[in-house]
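note to self: dont lose this again. the chain is below, predicted strucutre after it. 436 aa total, dont forget to put it in the shared folder this time
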Amino acid sequence: MPTSTLDKKITIAHVSSNFERQPLAKPFGFKGGYMKEVWQTVAGMQSASGSHSIGLGTQNVLWSDASVFASHSENGGNALMYAMTEHALQMVKGQSFTSPIALLEQMLEEVFAYGKKVTQNERLRKTFALNALVSVDNAAWLLYAFEHSLQDFDTMIPDAYRPALAHHHPKVISVPAFSYATPVSEMNALAEEGYFLMKLKLGHPGSQGEMLQKDMDKLTEIHQVIGKRKTPHTQDGHIPYYLDLNGRYETKDALLKLLDHARKIGAFDRIIVVEEPFPEENETEVGEVGVLVAADESAHTDEDTLKRIEMGYGAIALKPIAKTLSMTLKMAKVAQEKNIPCFCADLTVNPILVDWNKNVAARLAALPGFEGMGLMENNGHQNYQHWEQMMDYHPMAGAPWTQSKEGVFELTQDFYQHSGGIFKLSEHYQQLCKVT
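---
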């Protein structure tokens, strides 16, 4: 359906919000810290014409701004982000919009400024504000779809952004993530189940020297166990590694030492991507380090995405479940126009948001070497204490494409027809967030 016909003004007459705390099975460590629980936020919207929607978000204070996590209690940091979500909803109450992307653009800077105020942090990262806006943005997209009688993800996406999401892959790789504290035995157990692409979160706590030594030791330990395994899903038959350094490396020299160590132990050729090696203020060129380098947290917006591409970043980790679908579409468009591949990273999100992420991952051009397959990090099943109960909250729980098999989500036409179930509102979350 041409977007030119979708110019109806939608007035947000009523809003509501709530959150639910979900404990992790064990502390999840990265960026020098450890999370113990994750807040699931719900934003409700009702239009003046009576349509209503709910949008889900998963908060991750440690990922979005580690300085906020470090300077507050875990619950305190979560409360600050939730306050920003509520502030955004109150901002848009009574407002009209024709496009969720325009609505996000209208909200973002004011919510970001409010975030700096409540966190008392003038250097707050913009990703913190985007994370706070995911549930609001998702609610706006669904309200937009319901108001226009749109019933699938493809027709919901405006024309300008469709070339970046032009594929319908039959498979999406499910990528488990392992923190620096994860025992290698757990990684080996998932490899036994058939998972074949591993995301390794390095950047151990400590000084730069201590971090580098611990990271090298961990990579050695992993490679000694996982490196011997075979898989039918890659061209060389080996399990590839996806290294996430979470912005912990302060110099290119330290990164090169890690990569030199990988060469010494025979792991270098297994590394398909290194994600976010440097702090975002570090504008080191990365085009000649010898591996594909991806931007994640440092690419807050489409403008940041272009800047990182100009610095030699050869891939972009998209996070519609962490930076909003609206911003993700803008970022994907920039990357596609520059012929830069994208994939989807996780935020340890709930099962419904996994399918929001999957809708994007399934439509992006494949990474080199993985033709015919989307790629998506998916670690909630590893980390939530009550994952199976959370799966029951999915409106299409039990659909075959909600479960990966041997490290792959098989996407039948049913998945695309129902858009992963995201247009069906979860009864559980509706009860949490009744719009009045």
